[in-house]
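Late entry, written up from scratch paper. The run itself happened at the end of the previous shift, but nothing got recorded in the book at the time, so transcribing now.
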Amino acid sequence: MMQDALTLYKLIVLFMLDKVAFPMTKAQVCDFIQEKEYTNFFTIQQVISELTDTELISAKSIRNRTQLCITEEGKETLRFFENRISEGIKSDIENYFSEKELELRNEVSVQGDYYKSTSGEYEAHLLAKDRGITLVEITLSVPAKEIAASICDNWQKKNQAIYQYLAEQLF
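Output as recorded:
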């Protein structure tokens, strides 16, 4: 019985990732599944790990977020077994996306990461995308890791205002 439940959870994750045209964060997937009380945090972590290990999904870590995407193998697997997901669960997922798609997309479309450069400085790499198109990409060199981290955090909060300012000044 437990294996059947794990299979269902895997199919739910694949279905979710297949329904969107952008990566979802691990937290977004977990929040939905826990909000619907399908399973607990530890089980969904195991499910995501197993899907990644079998290359049915890909995972990319950016700072403190892990972005998930369905792979071609995952899409093929979903096509074979999608009928094992109840219409009620599919409806829950589709309703969730119709209510929160813009919010979910915005959360993964704005990225900020930093790293130590060869010169010993830290570089904050900031990116904003919309539907896969890069709107703005900025790299700032700063002397300290804490400053780079702060820049990345502020980019998450202020990216729209910064983009608007740049557009006004440059156009």
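The mean pLDDT is 89.
(Scratch paper discarded after transcription.)
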